[in-house]
Amino acid sequence: MSVAFVLWRRSLNEVLRVRGALLPATIAPLVFMLGITGQFGRLTGLDGFPTESYLSWIVPLSCMQGAGFAGAAVGANLARDIEQGWFDRLLVAPVPRPLLVIGPILGAVTRSTVPATVVLVFGLALGAELTGGLPGLIALYVACAAFCATAGLWGVFMAVTFRTQQAGPLMQQGVFLAVFLSTAYTPLVLLQGWLEEVAHLNPITYVLQMARQATVVGIEPSLAHTLPGLAALAGLAAALGALAVAGLRRMGR
Amino acid sequence: MRVVGALGRRALSVQFRRAQLLMPTFVLPLMLLAVIASGTSAAQGLEGFPDVESYLAFVVPGTIIQGTILAGLTAGIAMASDIEFGFFDRLLAAPVRRTSLVLGRLAGTLALSLLQTTFFLLVSLLFGASYPGGIDGVLATLVLAAITAVAMGAVSSAIALRTGSLSLLQSLFPFMFVMLFTAPAFFPQDLLVPVLRDVSVYNPLTYVVEGVRGMLGGDSALGDPVAGFAAALGLAVATTALATAALKQRLRRL
Q1: With an 8 Å Cβ cutoff, are B192 and A38 in contact?
Q2: What is the pLDDT of residues A26-58, one digit of tens each?
Q3: ipTM score for this prediction
Q4: Is residue B46 part of a domain?
Q5: pTM of this prediction?
Q6: Where are chain A's structural domains?
Q7: Between B40, B45, B175, which is nearest A40 by CB?
């Protein structure tokens, strides 16, 4: 585990020693939060919307988006390390291969608390309410951290498959799509057409429900709103983890 | 003009020869359009929402403007890449007018925007959008979007020329999107939250997006095309002057 710890420290140093490295990852979800709230804020007037504050609806989404982008960056960094030859040196080390990516993923989970917290604080300052109290807050942070880890596994899978930094947009947009093909803008009851079907099947819908226990008055903290999200995250982690490990095993062979 | 044309063609071929660059400029805006059109179509039930034939056609102008921002940003990223990797210095040594280096890049952005807007309109048409403004409305939309893309390309080129930093340009994405979100891109101006509605009055893209909406919808109540063209032309002239000034400043530093 000391290998994972050292690589975790290395990935944190990349942020601590590069001035402003976290800025884009933090600003992007903030801009989207403010922009989407400004555009679609009146949707709460529709029957079936579980809160009167659209900001409260969007804050958890933006927190997860920030965490997801932090996770996807693991793949971009790994692709860079593969292209520049650094990862080849790590591969010859006498350690199990999964440990080589666990450290960077833990680093991303640590880093993801920054955008998630900044977005949450801004959201609360602008009028969102922490209706779920401490249990809701815990659910939000667990959802963000686990989503970051699954996005990291997705990034690793992409990096070991394509082995080029040019796959970066695929990593980011995979996260972007997973989030937006869910109940991102409106609850399930208000979705129409194909998106309603897709959102029902998309595991991120249930992760978002778990995260929204923090700020959405109509989604109170409960096991019924938490367990589907946890199950979805576990399923995603298992599937993407298996793909990432299989890809790692193929490296250099 | 020959140099501008050649550099414009080069900018366009780079875009199409690197498939990953097509993702943000062509695919991502369409995906967002699909999600918004399906995810927020219940908004038509809100009091004050204009009586439109097709909700998809109502939000397409937002996607077109998003496309112009992304096309413009791509121009800046490509310019910064040329500067960082030294190709721009070689161009500077060529016996051509130096402003044509900026204009060539913007010509590529203009052509990219024409292709992009045609693609968005066609795909939306296939998925049920209707354009009561007819062929005239569609052609005018193509022109208005192209002028707007040139304006956006000039902004990002000016930043690229001032800083020469590829990583800065790659981080510019959320900041450029502030312009999209402070315009009534996907929702009527009267239904935006009050603060945003007040801010949107000062955003030139408000008039562009409403102009496109008016032309495609064939209904000037949805937006004034003249105001849209005036805003886009004003923006394009101002930002191209900014980019040219940035180029001259860069040359003085050499």
Answers
A1: yes
A2: 888 898 898 889 888 888 988 889 999 999 999
A3: 0.73
A4: no
A5: 0.80
A6: 2-250
A7: B40
